[in-house]
Specification:
Two copies of one chain form a homodimer. Chain A is α+β, with helices and mostly antiparallel strands and 348 residues long. Chain A is 38% helix and 22% strand.
């Protein structure tokens, strides 16, 4: 079933000839970062992940050097958070065209330094190359434990679906940056949920970050667990207030803040009902208020209340759209709006 | 003094705002990979390094997909070897243009898989993006120990300079690929010296890989240690036989096989005289015959016997040339040949 998603099928194809390390705990697709035992007889594990920022720069979505630096660090730390690991540090490889101003480079490096600082971690090393286009690759290293890391699998029907914080900021930023006529700008600077993850990992039955948006995340969790999700009727309260303003100004339906591909880097996770109270009280002690957004359901489908109907979202279609639109942002939005119209006229 | 080298000065500038992790053992420029303690009270360390293959693809030097994959793995494992670490595995991030054939991608992935296999290690995970140009970034993770990792610093005058194997293959490949009229092709497929490093780390006073060629490596070691190197009079025997054929065919002076910027990924290391015998006997047991190429000398300069004179090489000039030629390979060779003529006519 994973193969019906273009991205999963690409990954399966690229990795088919690779041997798996006997010290690797997670299987393919199972976690946001790789979990590696340091030796057979130790409980200590390393969590490690790599992520490149390049498409977002090419499309013009990221043109602020500070944001490019910040995101290179945060997308990787967010993957560590999603497995409940404690960051040790990052390596950064940079391709920088020769015509970049020193001011641009300083802002870029400041974004990297600030993002590492705010997550109380360090830049351990890196590599620089010159090239035609800016490309930044981060690799984050963290400490994990053999038995207590978060996976994408393990949720059960009845478990409660939470988000680490308000949703929709990633897509609101993309709309305001690339598509909006009223470009007021949307302040986008996500934080990896490292601190929150240290609580989540004591309670959650599965966890994944929303790097590709909420629907893509739920689709991946659905495919891996073979269970589905139902959004709560009041799902609008999970949306970021400023993000709502952006979509309303641009006459885009609210729920597309879940559907768009540009993520907000929150954690989506499921909490078994019997530990929910304890989880919430642990969170409250840290002055953190996670947001309940739905439930795990038996049937592998994603249900949402829209246009006064309970609708099933075609999450595969939504998730494959960016690949089919090949970077054409206007076509992508048009296709999402067409799908929304379909849903609106569907009889149920 | 490090600042007189363009590359070092770039790195210093990029990293000046970064805080150093209290768990990081090595200082900036001191080792080929970063050495990170896992906790304050443990002897166990992680070695980690990141390296991007992009310029070599842009210049056309690497256009064989198998070689691109192979090098992405080997350049990183070579950095682990240079600190004497045992590989745990690698992460690979790939930017692949959409028009690549599936045959190209299969060969690329085969190069990655084979290189990992031959070094008895694993691909742990990765990331894929689409983009205009092919870019591959590898990150290698290894095990090291607090007290027994190899550094670029620590050699003393009188120590003997060795290479892990014959030299010049990287530059011979570049000549035959980019500059030669008699393009017979030169078989270039370097191996990270992991096994050899496990012996070297018991004896060497410093170590570095020749990823940027022999002279650049010696220059960096010279600047860090504030000592110099003298090539043995019979330095020609350190050169790869096939590499010699390529330069002779192209009427290029032999010693430029040391000067060119495209490395052969051997290890250069220094052995104190009092442990040389024991070192050589350990190497012989593994059927490995390291090559003696010179000595550490008191004065920070690089001496070589050329044109029946003992000459001092302007290693800074040689090392900064590729940056000054900005990817213009013909200009680069022309500048090297001009410098060779200067040396030939120098009176000493």
């Amino acid at each position: 079933m994973l193969e019906t998603i273009i991205e999963n099928s690409l990954i399966n194809n690229l990795t088919k000839t690779f041997c798996r390390s006997p010290l690797q705990k997670n299987i393919l697709h199972e976690s946001d970062a790789e979990i590696i035992k340091l030796s057979n007889d130790s409980d200590e594990c390393i969590a490690i992940t790599i992520d490149t920022i390049s498409e977002e720069i090419q499309t013009g979505l990221y043109n602020d050097p500070y944001l490019i630096g910040w995101m290179t660090v945060m997308v990787n730390l967010s993957d560590l958070a999603a497995v409940g690991a404690k960051p040790i540090g990052l390596l950064i490889s940079e391709i920088l065209p020769e015509n970049l101003s020193s001011e641009f480079i300083e802002k870029l490096q400041k974004g990297i330094a600030d993002a590492a600082n705010v997550c109380q971690t360090f830049i351990l090393g890196g590599d620089t190359n010159s090239g035609k286009n800016i490309v930044l690759t981060g690799c984050a290293l963290g400490k994990s434990s053999n038995n207590k890391y978060l996976k994408r699998t393990g949720c059960k029907p009845g478990d409660i679906l939470y988000s680490s914080n308000k949703l929709g900021g990633g897509n609101a930023f993309a709309i305001s940056k690339l598509l909006s006529k009223h470009s007021d700008g949307f302040n986008y600077l996500p934080f990896a949920r490292i601190k929150e993850a240290s609580i989540i990992r004591n309670f959650a039955s599965c966890c994944m970050d929303t790097s590709d948006g909420v629907i893509s995340t739920l689709d991946q969790l659905m495919q891996l667990n073979n269970y589905g999700f139902r959004f709560d009727n009041n799902w609008e309260r999970a949306l970021d207030f400023e993000a709502i303003k952006v979509v309303k100004e641009n006459k885009i339906p609210l729920w597309l803040l879940f559907a768009g591909q540009h993520g907000e880097f929150e954690l989506l996770f499921t909490i078994p009902e019997n530990v929910e109270k304890e989880f919430l009280s642990s969170a409250k002690k840290e002055n953190w208020f996670p947001i309940k957004i739905g439930r795990v359901i038996e049937k592998p489908e994603v249900q949402i209340n829209l246009y006064n109907k309970t609708l099933l979202l075609n999450t595969q279609k939504i998730r494959n759209l960016p690949f089919q639109c090949k970077g054409d942002i206007k076509l992508y939005l048009k296709s999402l709006l067409e799908y929304d119209r379909e849903l609106n006229t569907t009889k149920f």
